Amino acid sequence: MAHCSALFSPISLGPVVLPNRIMVSPMCQYSARDGNATDWHVVHLGALAISGAGLLCVEATAVLPEGRITYGCLGLYSDDNEKALHRMVQAIRAVSPIPLAIQLAHAGRKASSRVPWEGGTLIDAAQGGWQPHAPSAIALKPEEAAPKAMDRADIDHVIAAFRQAAKRVKRLGFEAVELHAAHGYLLHEFLSPLANRRSDEYGGSLDNRMRLPLQIFKAVHEVMGPDAAVGVRLSATDWIEGGWDIEQSVVLCRQLESLGCAFLDISSGGLSPRQKIPLAAGYQVPFAERIKREVGIPVISVGLITDPKQAEEIVASGQADMVALARAILNDPRWPWRAAAELGGTVTAPHQYWRCLPQGHPPIFGDVKIGQR
Fold first, then answer.
1. 74-75 and 148-149: which strand pairing?
2. Model-wide pTM > 0.85
3. DSSP code string of 316-338
4. What is the pLDDT of residue 341?
5. Active-site residue, selected from the candidate residues 30, 71, 77, 185
6. What single string gives the DSSP state of each residue in 245-305?
7. Phi-psi region of 149 (alpha: psi -120 to 50; beta: other; left: phi over 0)
8. Is 185 tagged catalytic?
9. Please, what is the average pLDDT of the chain?
10. Domains of the chain in sequence order
11. What average pLDDT does this structure show over 47-59?
12. pLDDT level of residue 2 (50, 70, 90 thresholds)
């Protein structure tokens, strides 16, 4: 009997069926123009669309222009943004059947930043930047200007922007949406007591700090309807004493599940430069494992997952239901092919590539018979 790889078994994220448990993580490329996807996105995501992964997630896409991390970040707040993404989606659909997700985001106090290769620091208004918004007027770094503390009108504006962006996502035909509540961006800032010092209904108690992320989830879930999967990427801990932690994450994840959340993508950190992260292979897997014990929906693990056998063990042992790859799949865009060869799995690949495997290579494209005249 042939070995059955757990990593290459199908899984359902709500109504969306994936052929395997490998997700291409949303990875910022800082290559948009006025929020519009460019040729870079078509080529970059097109290559990853034929990687053999089970799900491809488009990078953090801002719901408002001031919600972009940098001038180079994708947006979905205008007709031009939607038109550019439509072109990109159509190009991907022309070459691959891979299910598509998009990560909707607002950068909060991390907005108006330089791109990473220019230092990633805050661009102040005098240098052409814009005013970041956050739950409280607390700067990310002591040397930076404080963001604007959001009033109720700002909060309502952000909720409406997520709802409007979801309408655009639905028109574009994405199968899934991932809401970005991790890595120190706006929704994570509302969750963490280190960034949220509000005294109104959006701050203080855990219920109050969860209020905005849950309201935004409800709005997006309502727009996307029963045929799409809406999930959340969450930082399970701030890695700082007194900050957001795994126990609070469990409470949030249970509430998200009760609202119809289709999946949870569990990361960590990013809220403060004071974080102390013990980097090691699979260092975030225990957070996914804990949350998986507490909920009944699929849980995805991320972070320094690079080896196929490591990924197989995470899924086969029940630590997580899926793995999401970022740097590993940028470095090796055929990582799922290599994993399938090692683990006895099969992947979907374009017919044009079926003859590329060397003599004696495992038949990872399934029951494929190739002839030549």
1. unpaired
2. yes
3. HTTS-SEEEESHHHHH-TTHHHH
4. 94
5. 185
6. -HHHHHHHHHHHHHTT---EEEE---S-TT------TTTTHHHHHHHHHH-SS-EEEESS-
7. beta
8. yes
9. 95
10. 11-353 (3.20.20.70)
11. 97
12. very low
